[in-house]
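Memo to structure team: turn this sequence into structure tokens by end of day. - J.P.
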Amino acid sequence: MEEYLESCCCFDTSQYSGVPDTAPCPGSINVPKAVEKLDALKNEGRMAEAVAFTVKQKDLAQSLGDWRGKLTMLSELVGMYRHTGDRAAAVRDCSEAMDILRDHGLGKTVTGATVLLNCATTMSCFGLEKEAIPVFAHVARVYRSELDPSDYRFAGLFNNMAITYTQIREYENAERCYKIALSVLKNCIHPENDMAVTMCNLADLYYMTDPEDGRVYDGMEKAWTLLNTPDLPRDGYYRYTLSRCVSAFDKFGYFRYSWALKEILEASDEDH
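Reply from structure team:
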């Protein structure tokens, strides 16, 4: 991992240095309560209401001088805008969140780096891949200095970096990132869901460079085996994983596997 990070393009870390601001804010919103309500709205599929609620909480935090609460709400909004497709709002709020991190010296903390990861992922989603890559690299350096190398957060980071590199056709970098993510995931508890998604993405990457590459089909077989791990919990996250993998099984002609996954998803819909 360290050898790979040394080759990443540089990020102007001077903007994100300094001592983290620990001074109390004049007032504050109730972040846990706000996040609880936000999660409830999202779980009910009421995304428009979730966005409106979070915007109100962000504005309330602003009026109270609560930059910490505002940062949390901005980070939530950035993630939601990826799902709603609101590019202008996403780019605006990414910029505002990054300004707060810079102004309050949080750029080299794990909390700050995680917000930057969210922003970089969103930037990549909306066509700003080249701007996102150095931000990802900065996050990787912060994580490397602050977290255990086996921490699951590295997997999310490198998976998102891999997707971004794929989008700009830097396939060798993408492959390295996927392999780093897999090496982290294998040490996590019940890693099969995320490993299956990563294997599907890696298979697709190999297909882009060579449709006859045997690793495409090896990867899909491994993904299928992972999804059928006997002690893997068949919960909501499992069903979400299946929904992400189905299209890959269809694409590569694994129709029997795809049909089996769709049956599970349809049965789940009937139960709910």
